[in-house]
Automatic annotation (TrEMBL):
<dbReference type="Pfam" id="PF02826">
    <property type="entry name" value="2-Hacid_dh_C"/>
</dbReference>
<keyword id="KW-0560">Oxidoreductase</keyword>
<keyword id="KW-0520">NAD</keyword>
<feature type="domain" description="D-isomer specific 2-hydroxyacid dehydrogenase catalytic">
    <location>
        <begin position="2"/>
        <end position="297"/>
    </location>
</feature>
<dbReference type="InterPro" id="IPR050857">
    <property type="entry name" value="D-2-hydroxyacid_DH"/>
</dbReference>
<dbReference type="InterPro" id="IPR006140">
    <property type="entry name" value="D-isomer_DH_NAD-bd"/>
</dbReference>
<dbReference type="GO" id="GO:0051287">
    <property type="term" value="F:NAD binding"/>
</dbReference>
<dbReference type="Pfam" id="PF00389">
    <property type="entry name" value="2-Hacid_dh"/>
</dbReference>
<dbReference type="InterPro" id="IPR029753">
    <property type="entry name" value="D-isomer_DH_CS"/>
</dbReference>
<dbReference type="InterPro" id="IPR006139">
    <property type="entry name" value="D-isomer_2_OHA_DH_cat_dom"/>
</dbReference>
<protein>
    <submittedName>
        <fullName>Hydroxyacid dehydrogenase</fullName>
    </submittedName>
</protein>
<dbReference type="GO" id="GO:0016616">
    <property type="term" value="F:oxidoreductase activity, acting on the CH-OH group of donors, NAD or NADP as acceptor"/>
</dbReference>
<dbReference type="InterPro" id="IPR036291">
    <property type="entry name" value="NAD(P)-bd_dom_sf"/>
</dbReference>
<comment type="similarity">
    <text>Belongs to the D-isomer specific 2-hydroxyacid dehydrogenase family.</text>
</comment>
<feature type="domain" description="D-isomer specific 2-hydroxyacid dehydrogenase NAD-binding">
    <location>
        <begin position="104"/>
        <end position="274"/>
    </location>
</feature>
Length: 300
């Protein structure tokens, strides 16, 4: 049986139709039901809400492969999977274009004040504000040079932006490479985060590193909310040490009712959807489903 505990595009279900599939997109919310169903599963497909931890894996004696509908792996205990010789399928780069288009699109909209102007016109105000700025000539710092980071860089280049990249684990072109996070952030006009959540990247942006930016800098986070110390970010924004923040991911999702960040006019928030387009979800579902099917077909 193939167990799918979170939402998957129908194309994935079609590919897996020759197997018994138990699909419940809300199953991750019921730990008892999840533990009960995992006992029969040869394959498990998840997004980012299902905790594939040691307890879950221990309750899955038949499990041969796990598919992740996305690229973040902080909800998956990879060491235990390796110990059990359980395969892991991750669709690297499948949503990179969606994320990159979000970053560039939001950067343009934020710098040109499109949201405020739209709301003004809706209220019958016709204010021809000339305070917007172009992306051309501005410095974009990208932390993380994986598929999404590279897609952002490629698109930013066509806008004539100056580029700066930090990633100690990737081969970054020498002319664009920053040796440290601090060097990458120094004076950047726009900062975009594209790294996984690890012990090293937790609160990568904090009270100290945020000071490397300037009063017009805009922070864009489409990776993981925990990369940013949100208390430090709030203080920097309220003190006008930063120009703004575009947050698709948060430390707590959804944010708490008294969350102050989402109430600031210079903070734009979206509900973790940067990589969620019809195109990316088809590509991700197809990649994972075909990988799962290949593993199970070989072990029939």
């Amino acid at each position: 049986m193939i167990l799918i505990s979170e939402m998957i595009h129908p194309v994935g279900l079609d590919i897996l139709s020759s197997y018994e599939v138990y699909y419940d997109p809300d199953l991750h919310q019921d730990s008892n039901a999840l533990l009960s169903q995992i006992a029969r599963a040869r394959a498990l497909i998840v997004r980012n809400k299902t905790q594939v931890n040691a307890e879950l894996i221990e309750r899955a004696p038949l499990l041969q492969v796990v598919g992740r509908l996305g690229v973040g792996l902080d909800n998956i205990h990879q060491e235990v999977l390796r110990e059990r010789d359980i395969g892991l399928i991750v669709p690297r780069g499948a949503n990179a274009i969606s994320v990159a288009e979000y970053v560039i699109g939001m950067a343009i909209a934020f710098q040109r004040h499109f949201l405020r102007m739209t709301l003004q016109v809706r209220e019958r105000q016709w204010v021809r504000d000339m305070s917007g700025v172009e992306l051309a000539g501005k410095t974009l710092a990208v932390i993380g040079y994986g598929a999404a980071g590279q897609a952002v860089i490629n698109r930013a280049r066509s806008f004539g932006m100056k580029l700066r990249i930090f990633d100690p684990f990737a081969e970054v072109p020498g002319s664009l490479k920053a040796e440290t996070v601090e060097e990458a952030l120094e004076g950047a006009d726009i900062l975009s985060l594209h790294v996984p959540l690890t012990h090293e990247t937790f609160h990568l942006l904090n009270e100290t590193t945020l000071k490397r930016l300037h009063s017009h800098s805009v922070v864009i986070n489409t990776a993981r909310g925990e990369l940013i110390d949100e208390t430090a970010l709030l203080h920097a924004l309220e003190a006008k040490q930063l120009g703004g923040a575009i947050l698709d991911v948060r430390e707590i999702e959804p944010p708490l009712q008294d969350d102050r960040l989402r109430m600031l006019t210079n903070v734009w928030s979206t509900p973790h959807i940067a990589g969620l387009t019809e195109d990316s979800q088809i590509a991700i579902a197809r990649y994972v489903a075909e990988g799962i099917k290949e593993v199970l077909d070989l072990k029939r």
